[in-house]
Every structure is written in C-alpha cells, then in structure tokens.
Amino acid sequence: MIDDFAKPLPRRASVGVMVGNVMVGGEAPVVVQSMTNTDTADADATVAQVAALARAGSEIVRITVDRAEAAAQVARIKERLERIGVNVPLVGDFHYIGHKLLTDYPDCAAALDKYRINPGNVGFKAKRDTQFSQIIEIAMKHDKPVRIGVNWGSLDQELLTRLMDENAASATPVSAAAVMREAIIQSGLLSAERAEKLGMGRDKIILSA
C-alpha cells in the first residue's frame, strides 16, 4: 500500500470459493476459465461453444449477459448443457444493467454459478451503490458467489480522482501509474467490504485485479 493514501485495509485470508462444482482459490489448484464469443441470445451457438470449451479442458465458462434477450436464454442453455452431460459451471458477465437482468429473469439468476461484476461498471454516481447492493442481495438469495473485479477499463473514476488529488497534495507524490494501481486494489477491496457488510460471506467472494 502507498503510505500517503488512506489507512490500509486489513489483509484478507485466502478462502476457497465453490463455483458450481469447482473450487477456486484457497488451497485449490489453478482453474482454467474461458469465455464464449457467441451471442448468448443464440442458445444453439452458445450451447455448442460451451460444450466445445468444456471438452477442450475449460473447467469454468463465462458467458455474456448483456441484455434481456441474453438473460432469457441462460436457464435454457444450462438445461440443455446438463441434458448432454456438460456440467461445467457457467459465469454471467454483467455490465451496467446486471441488477435489472437478475431481477427480471430470476431463472437466469438461479441457473448461473457465479456473477461477474466490475464495481466501475455497475452504475453511475448515486445509483452505483444501490445497484451493486441489488446484485449482492440476489446472489445471497440464490446462494451464488460473485467475482468482484477491477481493471483499467472499469476503474471507479471517483476513487481514482480522489487518490490523484491526495497524491498531488502529498509531500512525496508517486507516479500516476502507482496511483492507478492503488485505485484498482482499493476499489476491489472496498467493494468486497461492502458486500460483506450486506451479509455476504468471504467464501462467496472472488477478487480480481
């Protein structure tokens, strides 16, 4: 952590997280995850690609759930995969309207084995915390883990701006790249802390930075 920034957050012990029937993190071996490039609304193409990825050795597969048409097909995709003996866990990749899709399509929420969210892409300004909370509450309702991930493209701009301002006012400023790395770390940890305050256990949270 950078000394001049806010008080460091406590270290988090590594806890394994079950994603469907696959353990991630903790003492588990590294898990191979891949992602489809099909339109999830096209159930036939998505089922075929998920099955192909599973046969090739992918232990978890991520699918995009970006709009209503995609969310409406998720349960059907899961059911068809199980029917052909493909039990690979499915992860839903959400941006901006994940809270709405998971609310409007409860069968999608139930079918997915993990929800993938980026704090910077959950919503804007005042809506962000509300929409993040909605996703966490739905995940707890369905007993699903969440992946809270931060990268350059989904960084919380308000947090970054605050840290940049603090750094500029510091007697020993660090590089802009160092501030951005700190912002990525803090964003992930603060979001995980928020999820825990909502009642989510650490055994349901995966952090990615």
Question: What features would you describe in this structure?
Answer:
- The chain is an alpha/beta fold.
- It is 44% helix and 14% strand.
- The protein has helices at 43-55, 68-83, 98-104, 106-111, 126-141, 157-169, 176-197; strands at 17-19, 22-24, 33-35, 60-64, 90-93, 114-117, 146-149, 205-208.
- Helix 1 (43-55) crosses helix 2, helix 3 (98-104) packs parallel to helix 5 and helix 6 (157-169) crosses helix 7 (176-197).
- The longest helix has 22 residues, at 176-197.
- It is globular.
- The two termini are 14 Å apart.
- 35% of the residues are buried.
- Mean pLDDT is 90; it is low at 1-6.
Outline of this structure?
Helix content is 44%, strand content 14%. It is an alpha/beta fold and 209 residues long. The model is unreliable at 1-6 (pLDDT under 50).
Number of helices: 7
- The number of strands is 8
Q: Tell me roughly what share of residues is in helical segments.
A: 40-55%
Which parts are unreliable, with pLDDT below 50 for 5 consecutive residues or more? 1-6
Strand content: 5-15%
Using the alpha-carbon principal axes, give the shape: globular
